[in-house]
Amino acid sequence: MAIIYEQISKTFHLKSKDSSYVIKVLDTGHLVHLYWGKSINSSNLDYLVRLKNWGSFLANTDNIDEFSLEALHQEYPSYGNTDLRSPAFQLQLVDGSTITDLRYDSHKIYKGKPKLEGLPATYVENDDEADTLEITLIDKVANVRAVLLYSVFNELDVVTRSAKIINDSSEDVKILRILSSNVDYRDSEFDLIQLSGAWARERHVVRRGLTSGGQSIESRRGASGHAENPFIALVRKDTVEDKGEAYGFSLVYSGNFLANVEVDLYSNARVQLGINPFDFNWLLKSGEAFQAPEAVLVYSDKGLTGMSSTYHKIYGKRLARGKYRDAERPILINNWEATYFDFNDESIENIAREASDLGIELFVLDDGWFGKRDDDTSSLGDWFVNRDKIKNGLDTLAKNINDMGLKFGLWFEPEMVCPESELYKEHPDWCIHVNGRTRSEARKQLILDLSRQEVCDEVIKRICDVLASAPISYVKWDMNRNMTEIGSLALPAERQRETAHRYILGLYKIMDAVTSRFPDILFESCSGGGGRFDPGILYYMPQTWTSDDTDAIERLKIQFGTSMVYPSASMGCHVSAVPNHQVYRNTPINTRAVVAMAGNYGYELDVTKLSSEEKEAIKEQVNLYKEIRHIVQFGEYYRLKSPFEGNDVAWMFISEDKKEVVVSYVRQYAKPNAPFTSIKLRGLDPNGKYRLISEDSIFGGDELMYVGLNMPELRGDYQGTMFRFEKVD
Ligand code: DGJ
């Protein structure tokens, strides 16, 4: 059993692969956090429970002299008692008071890991993979229970956490704040890492030292968003890729989130993660329960690579689901940057025919095939084919493309409605809005109110009808705006601040219904690129369009940042035309392919307009990717040289069986008379021999890791190359 309860000291010791997480119940019933870090044997850390500091200004808990919650490290601090730091939980009772005092009531330890009702979460395939601890706390005055859920994975340094609140009283209560996890550290000697950016430059790695007071990242957009990802890491000052401690915090949620770090008056760091309390509250009627989303906490003493590798494993294999979790993903071609809205079935079939000659496996018809949509001003919601463009209908088009040897995929933006649409005419109140206020449009669209069951039902019906009408093998599920004027016509006044969270619950319901009904379809999520690249969506759709920025050089940073948490099999990466449509940069087609081959590979350009040399290059690239995709999609990934630190960028993959290695290198700018570059590989067997396939030369694993691999002299800007090794006996 990986969770031990020591009765005498009332201590829970949660043991994951190489780490320990220790919690204690005090005599007062308060739950304190004692330790999270590298595995320890002892379960009794009572000496860490300290009394108040001399000369402190802290109030005494239960009026016990020299004893205050604020001097302790807590598991799930609530508001209104003697801990005046940032709380994880706050309720409002019918008398208007906002004080909660949660104390231990009972606990359960069992094998396996339960599902979270209505929410995505990591899972086990058999109960031996994880153990779970449920600690029930109770506020006796309010008669409310909080069930803290902890699961530890036996083969991974992962602790998952969430909280559920149950109202056992006969009165209503209002949840003002319900975070999923709280971890108090005994110091604050950390750097904070976050993944920040904007549309077309998502998830850039930002690292800064912790300072006194609060530092937080959050979303108030109704989606996880382009600006911040629902992830932070606390790393020691000397932590680098291959050494040092790293603590990852990732939220399995797609809506407004808060990741907050508070460095307190004693220089302890408190780290919190959960639904953003900003503009949120939830009315909990007598007998009702509220489930908070799951936080996935990862510990690594092997640097950032150790942390990322654990996230890749758990998110790749125990969050992503369905047929494509373990299946190689097809090489696709998408017509968006080739045609935008200007296409018909003939031009589409021409692109598909050429793509088939090049060995591409899937054609994706992007935006513009439905309603009266010739630009982005109309028709979202009208999910019936535009016969002016697709004369013989989707079924015929899909079959014709299938006959060329390609599978057929289709774009949708199911969550939206354009005021210029049939759907809006029928149901003008189905969008998120507040009566009497402007319905602010973004890209001429409004957001459907997915907090309403009838809206969800209609979305499911419309999407499923299309999917059942033609041989569709892939869906790109897009979402292109954030929420403004948040309100729902279906909710009473006291529940208006539930709208944004109810929307996400509705979205999960829709995604669950559609993906379960079509288990053979590969779903790729998208939100203006990576505006909702989060673990919540990954549970329903195993891959996400990483960014609308397809420029190879920009993608270096975006993909590096994304790889901090998300596995390469979850990233959609395409070769697009030059000059690039986002930054107007010209990069060689070889470099574009090297960069796109770091994830699920595809093309997004008009292949009918390419020169014969470019077509030959694409044929070779497609063949190469078919040979290496099992390594890229399912192997171990290592960041070797960061685009945030220099001109040279490199990364590598090692196949699951450890026999094949792919190393990719991009030199961003040419330098005259440049020094030689050699790159040290990682993760190899130091005693093994590796054959560099292109040169048929043999290197020791130790040489490649400790001496390094010489990079060729590349001429010109934006040059990239790839090396393949195989392990020889
Ligand atoms: C935003 C997506 O990220 C693009 O790839 C494309 O699908 C457009 N939407 C279509 O409107």
UniProtKB/TrEMBL annotation:
Keywords, sorted A to Z: Glycosidase, Hydrolase
Catalysed conversion reaction: Hydrolysis of terminal, non-reducing alpha-D-galactose residues in alpha-D-galactosides, including galactose oligosaccharides, galactomannans and galactolipids
Record's keyword annotation contains Hydrolase: yes
Span of domain Glycosyl hydrolase family 36 N-terminal: 29-285
EC number: 3.2.1.22
CDD domains: GH36
A biological-process GO annotation: carbohydrate catabolic process
One of the record's GO molecular function terms: alpha-galactosidase activity
Binding of substrate, residues: W199, D366, D367, R443, K476, W477, D478, M479, N480, C526, D548
Signal peptide location: none
Annotated Glycosyl hydrolase family 36 C-terminal domain residues: 649-725
Superkingdom of this protein's organism: Bacteria
Active site: D478, D548
Similarity comment text for this entry: Belongs to the glycosyl hydrolase.
UniProt-recorded name of the protein: Alpha-galactosidase
Organism of provenance: Clostridium polyendosporum
